[in-house]
Write a structure and sequence with these properties.
By secondary structure, the protein is of the alpha/beta class. Helix content is 31%, strand content 18%. The relative contact order is 0.13.
């Protein structure tokens, strides 16, 4: 029996092509998009303005298949985390962060991660596979429509609402690709999902409110600028190549000079007039006054915001969080130099939903743990990365 097609896998162009294959009129694709993404309907029989013959044909060939929920956790600060089953023993995590002026969903792009940054628990689990575009957008589909149907949900009525959202309002106003995985090593599927997030027939989010975070996959930064420019956050974490080689092994393939050049090329296409650099504060590793001044010199010619992130410890890292006074002293050096710098508020750490804590369940194909002979060994899976982004 031929497997049914998951309609969550299709962006607008792909949906139009599929509808054409079924010999249906083009406007049916728009109807399907609105039923699935704006109304959150997964039962094709409930799509009442579709012809019965079309519905029957769809039911025979296609489905809307969301990810099964394994666990739903709520933190003391209102942060909510879901563990979602992606099959074959793998599960990924998504996190919703409610605030007064926005609702942000943090989405995963891979089951595990091959980059293996020293301070990130996801990387220590290894890597299994890329998520499909349906599995990526399915996290937004699930969270938006689950939360929108809850009595206590904060609905954000916009001045110029996306058609289809006028009466209900949206719960999720911002999406960040900062969950499990390196988004730009799953480029095609991530871009397909991004296009759905931005499409007025689906979620209609602003490019300014959708952020892709990358550890520095230079060729794909250039491609993203042309294909689907959204807000860009670069995981920097060190002011020089020697230290970044150790903290972010990808730096050995794309060193800082190449990475910052790609960032400068991206700026003219960015929806904001600046880029964000993420900097995880590690006690005694990258948090000295000397390193703060080095960071100022490194980023002097790029219009940017530096987001200082208190490290969220996990046992395998062997690292500690910088004390609050050290973080503030580091921030003050940046601010006094005229740079824009903020200290990220830690959210959801009581349910391991904070930055760098997402882990899920991964059937590791890269054998990261087997190769970590010593607790303080820095794994450098550069051969694997070469293969992933060729």
């Amino acid at each position: 029996m031929t497997p049914r097609i998951n309609l969550l896998d299709f962006d607008a162009d792909q949906m139009a092509a599929y509808v054409a294959e079924l010999n249906e009129k083009p406007f049916r694709a728009k109807q399907l998009m609105q039923w699935i993404h704006q109304r959150g309907v997964s039962n094709i029989n409930e799509m009442s303005d579709l012809a019965k013959s079309f519905r029957a044909n769809l039911i025979d060939k296609a489905e809307i298949a969301p990810l099964p929920v394994i666990k739903d956790e709520l933190a003391n600060d209102g942060t909510r985390k879901w563990l979602l089953d992606v099959g074959a023993g793998n599960a990924v995590e998504s996190v919703f962060i409610p605030e007064d002026d926005r609702g942000t969903l943090c989405i995963s792009s891979q089951a595990g991660c091959a980059v293996n940054c020293r301070f990130c628990s996801t990387g220590h689990q290894g890597f299994s596979r890329n998520l499909t575009s349906g599995e990526i957008i399915g996290q937004l589909w699930f969270a938006e429509h689950l939360l929108r149907n809850e009595p206590g949900a904060v609905r954000r009525i916009e001045t110029y609402p996306t058609p289809g959202w006028e009466h209900t309002g949206r719960v999720i106003s911002n999406v960040v690709m900062m969950g499990m995985g390196e988004p730009l090593l799953n480029y095609d599927n991530v871009v397909s999902a991004l296009r759905l997030m931005l499409d007025d027939r689906a979620y209609g989010l602003s490019r300014r409110r959708v952020t892709v975070s990358t550890s520095g996959v230079v060729p794909m930064i250039d491609r993203l600028a042309q294909d689907c420019p959204v807000a860009l956050a670069v995981s920097l974490h060190a002011p020089n190549d020697a230290l970044r080689d150790q903290l972010v092994p990808l730096n050995q393939k794309y060193p800082l000079r190449e990475l910052l050049a790609a960032c400068e090329r991206y700026l003219p296409f960015a929806p904001r007039d600046f880029l964000t650099f993420e900097y995880c504060m590690l006690d005694g590793v990258n948090d000295s006054d000397v390193q703060a001044k080095e960071l100022v010199r490194l980023l002097a010619n790029i219009k940017c915001k530096i987001n200082l992130i208190p490290f969220n410890p996990f046992p395998e890292s062997g690292l500690k969080r910088s004390p609050p006074q050290r973080v503030q002293a580091f921030a003050n050096i940046l601010l006094d130099s005229g740079m824009v710098a903020t200290v990220r508020k830690t959210r959801g750490d009581d349910i391991a939903a904070a930055c760098g804590q997402l882990a899920g369940d991964v059937i590791d194909r890269t054998r990261v743990r087997e190769r970590a002979v010593h607790d303080n060994e820095i794994i450098q899976p550069i051969t694997w990365l070469n293969r992933l982004d060729d």
